[in-house]
Every structure is written in structure tokens, then in C-alpha cells.
Design brief:
alpha/beta; 11 helices; globular; disordered N terminus
């Protein structure tokens, strides 16, 4: 069985995560075969989420896919966060794989897309994005309504995400997919009035402002996405293998007012 490599987001006082490399760099083979999956966690990544990815690493390896979870989010803004991600990719020697795949949570997309427009990864084959009409408003809510607390926990980066428009990838040859969260987190429910003030919640795939080869909806919120990634993994694997999610994937967007249906106040 090929050696699995898992890199886990380091603990900090501001990002609730912990851990380190499970395998020393000296043990990495010179020419790994097969594929690699690079996961880009966001602000919601925690010790519990780390354990989920650790538990999945061996089953991914049996599929011929080596898992990397990047330590890249900084407190000092998107510019340094992108620079740290670039170093992670370089230091992990991901260019040695035949095919590289990326799963980007929300902050990961804001970090990755402009970086790829400047620096091409020739072996990059697929990118799957976590998108959410609810959770993508969370950085803006935090920046507008609780500036001091947001800065204390996340530093300048959360403000950069809040104030930076989404920049979709322009590379024409990549396979791109969207997995859309269909329920709000407790944070969004608590700040429902602020969330609604930014406009209606649009769940249609075209509303996310980027091209895609497939798009599906998940009956979970952002926090659950981390904790239930094992449930999501078969869809991600299907897209890596075939460029499409499974036939069982839900491709019908929510109707009505999902926030109200989930217990929010209209």
C-alpha cells in the first residue's frame, strides 16, 4: 500500500485547529504515482474536522489518492495567505503527481483562484468548491457586526475575504464542480437579519458566478460539511474519476425560504 501523506492545519489561538504532518518529509518517495487531493480548509476547520480527514486518509490511499490538508490561512491577510499556500504546494512537491485535485472550502476558494491565475499548476485536473449562499455572508457579518471579535479570532484575513469579490477561475481546461450547502449554520441563524440585509439567497448553480461541469446540493450546513466529509467523499471521488457526480446526487436547488424553513425568522 502506498504511503499516505496527510498534512493538517496547525493549531493557533485564532484558528481552532491543531496537529502537524503525519509523515516526515524525508519519507516522501521521489516519484509518487497516481493522484493527490489537496484540501483547503477555511475558518470553520477545527480539531474535530482534522480527525475526520485523518480517518479518511487510508481509504483515499486505497483509491490511489494521497491526501494533503493545507496549513495556509494566516492572520495577516489574503496576500500572505496566498503566499503561504504557494509555499505549501511547492514544499509538498505536488507537481510530481500525475494529476492534482483540489477541494476548496470557502476561504480556500478566495485564496486559490487568484493564485492559479498567476501561477499555473500543469497537473491540476479538477477543482471542487464548497459554495453556500448562507456561509459566504458570514465573513461580512463578522466584519460589519463584530469587528473586534473577528479580528481577535481571525486577524485581517476574514476582513479581506469579506471585502473581496469572488474571482472565478479562468483556466478553460479544468473540470470544475460545485457542492452547495443548503442549510445555515447557527451563526447565520443568530445573525439572520444581517444575512438577509445583503440580499436574497440565490441557490441556483448559475448564481455563483463561475463555470462548472457539475453542481449538486447537500442537506447540511458549513459546520456539518467538515464533520460529514466522509458522506461527501463519494461524490468528490466520482467527480475526480469521471468528471461528474453520481446519478444519486441531488441537483435540484432548495425552494422557498431555506433560512425560514430551517428555523429562522422571516
Amino acid at each position: 500500500m502506498r504511503l499516505t501523506r496527510v498534512f493538517v492545519l496547525a493549531a493557533s489561538t485564532c484558528l481552532a485547529a491543531c496537529g502537524g504532518s503525519l509523515v516526515r518529509p524525508a519519507l516522501l518517495p521521489a516519484k509518487p504515482a497516481g493522484d493527490a487531493l489537496l484540501v483547503l480548509p477555511g475558518f470553520g476547520y477545527s480539531h474535530s474536522g482534522e480527525q475526520v480527514f485523518r480517518s479518511l486518509a487510508s481509504s483515499m490511499a486505497r483509491e490511489g489518492i494521497d491526501l494533503y490538508v493545507a496549513d495556509y490561512v494566516t492572520r495577516s491577510g489574503l496576500s500572505t495567505t496566498r503566499a503561504k499556500l504557494e509555499r505549501f504546494i511547492r514544499d509538498s512537491h505536488l507537481e510530481r503527481y500525475s494529476r492534482l485535485h483540489v477541494f476548496a472550502f470557502i476561504a480556500g476558494a478566495w485564496t486559490l483562484n487568484p493564485l492559479l491565475d498567476r501561477h499555473e499548476l500543469p497537473n491540476l485536473a479538477t477543482v471542487v468548491y464548497d459554495r453556500s449562499p448562507f456561509q459566504e455572508r458570514a465573513p461580512r457579518i463578522a466584519a460589519d457586526r463584530m469587528r473586534l471579535l473577528a479580528w481577535m479570532r481571525y486577524g485581517s484575513t476574514v476582513f479581506d475575504v469579506a471585502n473581496t469579490a469572488y474571482a472565478p477561475l479562468t483556466a478553460p481546461d479544468l473540470k470544475i464542480a460545485l457542492l452547495v450547502e443548503s442549510t445555515p449554520t447557527a451563526f447565520v441563524r443568530r445573525h439572520e437579519r444581517a444575512a438577509r440585509a445583503y440580499g436574497p439567497f440565490a441557490f441556483e448553480c448559475a448564481a455563483f458566478g463561475q463555470r462548472y461541469d457539475d453542481c449538486a446540493y447537500l442537506p447540511m450546513n458549513h459546520d456539518e460539511f467538515y464533520m460529514r466529509f466522509a458522506d461527501v467523499w463519494p461524490e468528490v471521488l466520482a467527480f475526480i474519476r469521471h468528471g461528474r457526480f453520481t446519478a444519486e446526487a441531488n441537483r435540484i436547488p432548495p425552494t422557498g425560504d431555506p433560512l425560514a424553513l430551517d428555523g429562522g425568522q422571516p
